[in-house]
Input
Amino acid sequence: MTNSLGRNVPEGKKPFVSSTDYKSHKRQQIGLKTQAEKPVFYESLETAFVDLSLHSGMTFSFHHHLRSGDKVLNQIAKLIEYSDLKNISLAPSSIFPQYDLSELIRSGRINNIYTSYLNGPVADAIQDGHLKGELIMQTHGGRARAIESGELAIDVAFLACPTVDLNGNGSGAIGKSACGTLGYAVSDLMYAKKVVLITDNIVDKLEKYQFDHRFVDMVVKVDSIGDPKGIVSGTTRITRDPIGLKIAHDTALMLEALGEIKPGMSIQTGAGGTSLAVADAIDKLMVKHQIKGSFASGGTTGFHVNMLKQGLFSKLYDVQCFDLEAADSYRVNAFHKGISASEYANPHDPKAIVNKLDIVILGATEIDLKFNVNVTTDSFGKIIGGSGGHADTANGARITIITAQLMRARIPIVKEKVHTVTTPGSDVDILVTERGIAVNPLRKDIITKLEAAKFKFVTIQSLLEIAEKICGKPKELPEGKRQIGVVEYRDGTVIDSLYGSR
Amino acid sequence: MNIGIAGSLESNDALVTVKAADTTKIEIHSIVDVFYHDQIEKVVKDVLSKKKNDKIHVIIEDKGALDYTIKARLLTALARMEANNA
Output
């Protein structure tokens, strides 16, 4: 079976129809489970594990706010093995390279994985064909939707929580493992059958908290939930690469030509070096024209915090803090607001921030002539990431801009067909490369405005031709390898399939 | 010694080593081998035939270099081998 983009969909799965199809479906929410009693406190994960009466076939979930410093998932993985559990489904919001799950995957203890971002040894083990069940790659908003609808039913959510009070309320803002907002874990907290907070800091009473004790069954005190060095990525810097800087500069000039640098504007950029350079270029234009925007959103960095402090935006909506400055600002600044994954990007959440965005700046490992974007695999077909909020913001924002170098180490970024579709071309409006800007022909409004402003742009076809003239035309990758999983669009339909390396 | 080296292992570059041999042997290790193996081989063969050199062992360790980079590195490696020989 194929979907509307011509991509393979395994039998029994819902094929992707369009990026607006979700609007004709109603929001589904399973009942909220609240606790009448206070949560039970444990001094050891082992004892808590026994009292949870776990069995094979269950689904466990986790969040990734401690990023590459997280120690919780590996501790639970050890207990899965120790308790002889088999056929477990794992649903962490992201999987980073420090997770050592290869042996549990090989031995049939972990058989299905749901996540929004994946790289490192776990990705390799799955692509080598060791996962008995399937890999389901969701968007950040799609994960929240799947959890609240019961489509992804979580038996136990093991939630790392930097500080918990004696009532069982939890916060990520303080404690030795503070990481800022815990937005991606809120759906797990509200809808998992059992919720276990795992912490290394217990206080008497939290005045402000993101996790409400009414959803919490257990609190477990451990020595350490994470390594602070890995929790935050340190100082996030603007790129110094001249190609990245040119792309950023051109992006800002184009936004100016489109009349988008205007009062009340809202924007989301990533935390990578080029994204920050774009934010910096926009920042300068806003200062020059004395523009005050409404909000910036997404994962945040010290750079975003500075824009808020300068008064360039009146609010920061933050689902995840990337560095210490962001985490500090979240703790002390009332205008730096933590939001849940659902409030950020759930297609059915009426409050979703992505729908209020004017502009989102995103990256791509590949983009094709129909503007379909791949951020899930590289050009060799290897899994190197995933949507995260890519497909959500692209769909929600009024203007979606992809910034990318036209070629990297001889590999053109523009393809006739991307290896994997993460975000459909119908949601992608503009591609900015160092050798030209291409506009999706579907966005006649943008084309008209750029023409009126005499702003130069080209076709995406011509960018492909330039890249292939310089690099040579790459040979087609051999096809027909074993399906190992799927990429879901934000509504849960299958937008593409994932394949093994052999 | 009958050997010449040019280039680097930086991204977008190639390290090219040439050694005198009885026949021509071309060894390509490239991060983009699956996409560009034949094209890299063609560049090497073109250079060797133009130089009328058919007794050489060429080793390319490629990090995504473009054709003109590979050509320049190969020509330099050959020139260095000759200089070493002189």
Observations:
- Chain A has two domains: 31-231, 242-478.
- The CA atoms of residues 277 and 463 of chain A lie 22 Å apart.
